[in-house]
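== Folding the chain ==

***
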Amino acid sequence: MLRTPPMRLLRLLHPLLLLPLFLPLFLPLAVAAAPDAALEKLETGYEAQGWNGVGQLEIGRRGFCTASLISPTLVLTAAHCLFDPRTGKRVDASALRFLAGLRNGRADATRDIRRAAIHPDYVYSRHASVADVNYDLALLELQSPIQLPSIQPFTTGAAPTDGASVGVVSYAQGRAQTLSYQKVCHVLGRADSVVEMSCDIDFGSSGAPVFEMKDGRPVIVSVISAKSKLRGGKVSLGVAVAGALPRLKSELALNEGSRFLRPPQGGTTRLIGAAPAGVRAGGAKFVRP
């Protein structure tokens, strides 16, 4: 069980690092039996085949996150992607757009968002607490279904176990125009719904699906939320989806886009949000939200 560090220690933390709350749980980095794979760009239709249900979530003119199709009408991403980091206010669903399989500036399918729901226990903050990372999930309903043979929704499954091999398909700064696939990275440990991994992610990767291969098929077991450092190396934090998805579907059925507005609250976790205002997908630079 994780122990909460004293508040005196929290005040000394560098704002770009996550709470040391995770360190006692995740110290045994030698848990991985095989080395992590390097990122591969999925630049051609052949290379992207089977992965083009992953897409870029455009957020007005302020940037993007990564998202994934889990049914012809539903897209899964991180909750903090739906908030404006400057104001802390919820972004209206009309400002969101899903670009499935975006490669080299062209998407296999583009859909506006009809409505969106975040986990009812999620509270947005630029410096969220570890507890909030547990709930950093959002479900979006498309204006019209994506029903193309080349774009198949992904199934979701139970959270991965410690030491499991997983993979991530994502966009990020410096690779905003084309999907990148890390075939193998590893689960370093878990705490509640938070999964810490060795996966290579960066700003813009928020909402990216974490896959575990089951019976030869990719299954989404987590969604990328934040990044940190451990013993000088980069680590990623994801949120397990299995327990939260039924609640998100229930919230989506009720949500008309206004009931989840919440003011920012204090904390120390750094999320990996979208680009600043005026930077489109593939723009020059990303900054931390």
User: Anything to note?
Assistant: The radius of gyration is 17 Å.
